[in-house]
Amino acid sequence: MDIHKVLDLLPHRYPFLLIDRVLEFEADSHLTALKNVSFNEPYFTGHFPVRPVMPGVLIVEALAQATGLLAMESRPDEVGHKLYYFVGIDNARFKRPVEPGDQIILKVKLQAVRQAIWKFHGDAYVDDKLVASADIMCTARDF
């Protein structure tokens, strides 16, 4: 999936679109995406000026956006043309900082869908090293 397909599926736009490309996708199973981390990101001016570090909450948001792509592309009739909400997070862990120049590889796996709640596990990597992980819950609702 290139950036044009990502823009077609996700409602997010700059500065909040946190997926640049999808590298791998298997419907109802998993998705691997990437985020290029640039020094020009607006949050780096304040987090932290002495040593820029990507906020962990934005890494988790990038994982959540990857889950949205997985859900929307897996079941477009069920999830497409709706707002896809991030409704819960469990077991979030941050292992190492993400800095300008890094490329984050986001791997999300669908665990279950029950009563319109989608449950996923997500891992974020830089240079094959785990930087963050979380269990994420989302749902799709009409506008």
What does it look like?
With 143 residues, the chain is of the alpha+beta class. It has one domain (3-141): Thiol Ester Dehydrase, Chain A (Roll), CATH 3.10.129.10. The protein is 21% helix and 42% strand. The protein is built from 3 helices and 6 strands. The protein has helices spanning 3-9, 56-74, 76-79, and strands at 21-26, 30-36, 83-94, 103-114, 117-126, 129-141. Strands 1-2-4-5-6-3 form a 6-stranded antiparallel beta sheet, covered by helices on one side. The longest helix has 19 residues, at 56-74. It starts with a helix and ends with a strand. The model has no long low-confidence stretch (mean pLDDT 96).
- Report the strand count: 6
* Major sheet size, sense and barrel closure: 6 strands, antiparallel
Helix count from the secondary structure assignment: 3
Rg computed from alpha carbons, rounded to a whole number of angstroms: 15 Å
Q: Which CATH architecture is right?
A: Roll
Give the fraction of residues assigned to helices. Answer: 10-25%
Oligomerization = single chain
